[in-house]
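re the bet — no i am not wrong, look at it urself. input seq straight from the record:
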Amino acid sequence: MAILFYYDDHEPPHFHVRASGFRAKFDLEELVVAEIEGQMRPQDFARLREWTIRHHAELYANWHRARRKEPLLRIEDQRCCTRLRRCVGGLTSKSKCCLNRMSARL
């Protein structure tokens, strides 16, 4: 899954998700999928929601940074790296910002 923030994005606080088979917008206030194109498997939703809860404060802060066109902060997740044997990297300051070299791997 790729987690993306867009600079100067609209309210309410959210991030975008891209994955094989679907694209979605995840609401940071309600912790729900606000919009979806395609089909998200229940296990993908559960993993995304768990990760979002674990990093809620960091994601929310980065959403506000992106709105102000400020550099985003790196989000580290050792638990994710260990369990999934993939490393989740940090946020970049590109026009589309996301984790792990332009695509967050959860």
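see?? DSSP finds three helices and five strands in the chain. told u. also Residues 2-98 form one domain. so pay up
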